[in-house]
Amino acid sequence: MSYLSAPLGRLECSELFSLSSLKLKLCDAGVKEAICFSKACVHAAKMSKKVYVFTEIFGKGHHMLLQYMMKQDGSDDPLLQKLISYTSNLKEATKALQNVSGGSRGKESETEWAARLAVHFFLPLSLVQDYILDSCSSHKVLECPCSCKSRINYGDTSIGHPKTWFGLFDIVIGKTLSPQERNKRRKPETEVHIAATVIPEEPDEESETLLESSEDNLSQIEVKFESLHKFFSQIASQSIVFSFYQKKCNSAVSIVPSIAVSKTHVQFHFYDCEKDLYFLSREMPLFSEDDNELLLETVIATWLVLNYRHLLSGPTEGMVKGEKFGFHSNVSDEVLNLYRNEIKMGITKIKTEHLDLKSGLYYQGVIVDASDTLKRKKNMKKQQS
User: Fold this and answer.
1) Segment 75-111, tens digit of pLDDT
2) Bridge partners of residue 159, in order along the sequence
3) Lowest mean pLDDT among 141-145, 295-299, 360-364
């Protein structure tokens, strides 16, 4: 597994795979109207110049990888076997995700791309093997577009409430319950683990370019954001609703991830609806620019996220001490109660009204924080010696 050492090292220290803590500036979650995710308004900014390395919140997963790399134990762990098996056959996995008409950036429908992602990226890395694609999606395919011809599962991915943000996920990992099954359960337990949204393709020339300056202003880094950035309001509203739903169904859950993925990049949103903390990853390339194979750093990060219930340790003490995201203070107690207690999956059709406000996510200079990650590595070396 030594071939994973270098990519893990970059997840442990590189700003390119970091997490930013966000501060909410404005949102329309509190208007007590049904607003679909695609029409939601969420303005947010980086809370400070500090960012956190990706492994900071995945203490359990990071420790597991360090243990295995130092040949202590864990080689038979089913979670590790998922990662080892997938990365050992990366060429085949990459080929399955490539569109025959034009490589990873070729033209195909969002549903076809969602099918490829579910069958050849998410499921192979996840302990949970149940999934559905949005049954309302257009251009549905019965089989995976690649040569494997795996049968594609569809179902109801809707979530929300008539007086909150609501909408559909493109991919849901985990079991979904029928209305009859939900009515039979005394507790609102859910077997849905994680949800993903596929971002539609857009021409490269429409990508936005922002400037990110360092703390001492001695240098400026030009950052070209892909299409994921333009859909921030949609993904943020989905992530917040999904986090409240998961917390309602399982009180032990803390921070909950959601996935936004395009043909070229993936981004992870993490919201803790109890502590009101929001962390956003950088947009991670799916494929390497050198050989167009799946990028190992992104594969490891995706493995950690998909299995977060086993591998995520939660926000560090330093993260919790920081300023809150601000969702709780941006809505009334009545609305907050709706999000805490009334969000459901498998909702009926809702009449929509929305505020026509432009959304935005603003970036500033950064400092990288890897304190807990470095502590785990030092402790592991001490144990080894």
Assistant:
1) 678 999 999 999 999 999 999 998 654 444 457 889 9
2) 167, 345
3) 360-364
Q: Quickly list DSSP for 241-275.
A: HHHHHHHHH-TT--EEEEEEE-SSEEEEEEEETTT
Q: For the chain, what is the total number of helices (H) and then of strands (E)?
A: 15, 18
Q: Where are the domains of the chain?
A: 2-384
The 10s digit of each residue's pLDDT in 321-340 is 988 999 999 999 999 999 99
Contact status, residue 87 vs residue 299, Cβ threshold 8 Å? yes
Contact 313, 59 (CB under 8 A): yes
Q: How far is CA 61 from CA 58, 73, 86, 270, in A?
A: 5, 14, 16, 16
A 10 A CB-CB count for 204 gives 11
* Identity of the amino acid at 224: K
* Residues 297, 190: Cα–Cα separation, whole Å: 30
Query: How far is residue 377's CA from residue 270's CA, in Å, rounded to a whole number?
Result: 24
Q: What is the mean pLDDT of residues 357-382?
A: 62
What pTM does this model have?
0.86
Of the listed ranges 36-50, 54-68, 111-125, the least confidently predicted one is 36-50
Non-local (6+) Cβ contacts of 323 within 8 A are: 21, 23, 47, 48
**Partners of 224 in beta bridges:** 209
Compute, in degrees rounded to 10, the torsion defined by CA atoms 52, 53, 59, 61: 150
pLDDT given for residue 363 in this prediction: 44
